[in-house]
Amino acid sequence: xxxxxxxxxxxxxxxxxxxxxxxxxxxxxxxxxxxxxxxxxxxxxxxxxxxxxxxxxxxxxxxxxxxxxxxxxxxxxxxxxxxxxxxxxxxxxxxxxxxxxxxxxxxxxxxxxxxxxxxxxxxxxxxxxxxxxxxxxxxxxxxxxxxxxxxxxxxxxxxxxxxxxxxxxxxxxxxxxxxxxxxx
Length: 184
What we know:
By secondary structure, the chain is an alpha/beta fold. The protein is built from 6 helices and 7 strands. It has helices at residues 23-31, 68-78, 82-86, 118-127, 146-150, 156-176; strands spanning 2-8, 37-39, 44-51, 54-61, 92-102, 106-109, 134-140.
């Protein structure tokens, strides 16, 4: 059985729950809606899903967005398997909002710069690599200062586009899990 870590980014607290910046954790909760629990040793909420004999830990750092790397680093240090020791970043997928993608679009990026996303930058710094796949969820273009825009809520029309994006983006998460090999 393999292991994966899906990290949904957002800010903790009810006041941020429906903001643009919390789209990463919102999508991850839509994909893995059950059994989230707070794990103090990681300073994160955690849920586990099994697909195709692969265990996927879903992690929501409950630090501020800008300190997400702390929870990811704690988790990978304490719960790492032999597979993760050999290929640590290939087993992680970061799910987050992206200002550069049009609202309601998404794409998987195999690695690269955080492009100003402080939550992603925190993870890159904590794990000492940018070689981590990411699922980028479009919230752009910004209609004001980026820091204010990402902490704002979606309008009803924008919410309708997000509702259309969530099912295919959830399928992208499922498709990230290695397929079970069939016997010859």
